[in-house]
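Suppose you are handed only these lines of text.
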Amino acid sequence: MSNPSLLILPGDGIGPEVMAEVRKVIDWYGDKRGLAFDVSEDLVGGCAYDKHGTPLHDDTMAKALEVDAVLLGAVGGPKYDNLDFSVKPERGLLRLRKEMDLFSNLRPAQCFDALADFSSLKKEVVAGLDIMIIRELTSGIYFGEPRGIFEEGNERVGINTQRYTESEIDRVARSAFELARKRGNKVCSMEKANVMESGILWREVVQKVHDEDYPDVELSHMYADAGAMQLCRWPKQFDVIVTDNLFGDLLSDAAAMLTGSLGMLPSASLGAPMENGRPRALYEPVHGSAPDIAGQGKANPIACILSFAMALRYSFDQGDEATRLEQAIEKVLADGLRTADLLGEDGVDPVSTAQMGDAVIAALDASL
Ligand code: IPM
Ligand code: MG
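From them, the structure of the protein bound to 3-isopropylmalic acid can be written out as follows.
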């Protein structure tokens, strides 16, 4: 049998340097655990625009549809701010999500014990936090039509459309209930059914999926604004949160910050199963391309390494190996290693991106 295939798209800014550390981890699994991957690499975002005049070349798109999983770094940077909207780096990422039909975006917000002091919230509010936000990723206001900037009388009007079909809500709700069963068995669905028809439909469909097929899972509904407030007030009340594309974008950034650093959080975007039974999948850190620190060895590679751990778990059925990697990272943090983003005022010297990666490898070695 051939090895599972991975397409790596490091992207822009700190993407390439954090991905270099992930490559070390991937190689480690090949050498030490007999888990070899066929790895290919390509361009996405601004670097793809520089070479091809488009943030995602058709050949890259085709490759992404062939492999078992895609691993992405980050896209974007100030150099590309004034490009036409249609070729902005973000369009490359959005095209991947849409054409791979990655409707279910898993964004864990987990507080590492060693970092509980680092949150802007009180330690008791965040210590032990472990929630999962499931964001619908291929529909809603990000993709709804009509959209555009139009002339209306003597002025222009900017239009985007929030649109959800029953089947789109149904499938993401199912993924939330399935995941909840493997965790705390609780789902909170968030929309704004008080002001949006799409929210009314969202609530109805989630409830129906629950009543028909997942009555064993505890389900609650919350308006998304109240949800944002509750996330800051007492986040540990949540287990799985399921929400639409735009609310999920906002709520996941807020939830991420509860844990202390955006530099720590991975994500998985999953679609329907392929012929081989694996879901179509793209894994990426939640953080962006951080152009201000790019190329200086300051970036934290942990979010990207944890994204590979999610790939091991969700694409390759290697839950135990994913746990091994997560524990290696916990150990490195418990040992006091910190990249610059994780430093307070306590005078500890930060380690570089590569030193952090090497420390994770050493911790993996020690786990054998
Ligand atoms: C995210 C990002 C993206 C989004 C951007 C880069 C298009 O903010 O993944 O959360 O808005 O979805
Ligand atoms: Mg976002």
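What can we learn from it? Residues 174 and 209 are 7 Å apart (CA to CA). Residues 90, 93-94, 249 surround 3-isopropylmalic acid (ligand 1) (CB under 6 Å).
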